[in-house]
Fold this protein.
Amino acid sequence: MAKRALIIGVSSQDGSYLADLLLEKNYEVIGTLRRSTNYIHENIKHLYGKINIEFADLLDFESIARLIRKHKPDEVYNLAAQSVPADSWNMPFYTAEISGVGPVRVLEAIRQFHPESKVYQATTREIFGNIEADSANEETKFDANNPYGIAKAYAHMMTRCYRESYDMFTCGGILFNHESERRGLIFVSRKVTAGVACIKNKVKNPPMNEAGEPLITKDFKLHMGDLTTKRDWGYAKEYVEAMHLMLQHDKPMDYVIGTNTTHTIEELCKIAFEHVGLDYKDHVVSSQTFFRPTEIKPLKGDYSRAKKELGWKPKTSFEDLIKLMVDSDLEKFK
Ligand code: NAP
């Protein structure tokens, strides 16, 4: 019989790739959306009719409990969150409610109504915050320094708590940044690749940036934050494979998923602009408006445990990832 998976937050970058992967593996896929007056979800347009859509909100315990009782899923992937670290300073209560307490609503609904479900919780590298280290693994201490990372650290520890207290199969995937053609425009990698496409194609009506202004100015400038910031960036399509593998393992564990390399935002800009024959120095402006109140130090994701136990490793290079995102945005923003 086909396995049944519930993806909470299927409209997310990761949710859409995970649904693709699970359909390929002949799963029955149920994906949740939030009730809204706008049902345009670009990332999952190709999935309509192939997955079962349900409505749930991480703020509402009953909306999740109802789905667990109704579908009794074999696997539950909680990908929903207030997922924008930069916004979390402006919305600390909301971020805590959705990204911190929300996952506990999922765990508790499963504990009460179908404790046999295997659970994946989307943890983030932001739980390590600003620690002084070259790389982090599953044993690295948490030192989150923004409301998003702190909320996610709580959810991660509760995921572990449910595993240890109730013998439930729960895994926390500590994922470093991962990007793709489906990444939200508010995130730095996509901001750059969409900006490059809009500049190259001389787009008159560019999309909005995170400050609610046009992504590129009339004189074809792209306003960014701190260009020296470093991140470990991988390809989202490969990271969802790791999520699935975690739930197929014989023992529930937490895993770090990353590439064990870092690059600056300046390198990201250089690759993206060069790919279309432009020099980023002519277009990119580092603007204080887009600096975070506190930054995090460069940190590499040591994925040794995932490699050893799950046979997972990253495949797409940083350069190829940025190029494929630029190519996709050149098509999208004409
Ligand atoms: P994303 O594209 O930013 O999507 C976030 C999802 O959460 C959307 O589907 C959104 O629904 C949903 N959501 C927000 N508030 C909700 C609520 N109250 N109830 C139900 N759903 C809600 O996320 P992503 O980048 O794919 O990341 C997936 C998960 O991994 C997130 O939890 C994120 O924090 C975590 N993570 C991401 C990265 C990364 O680099 N991408 C790294 C580490 C961890 P709408 O479509 O309705 O807004």
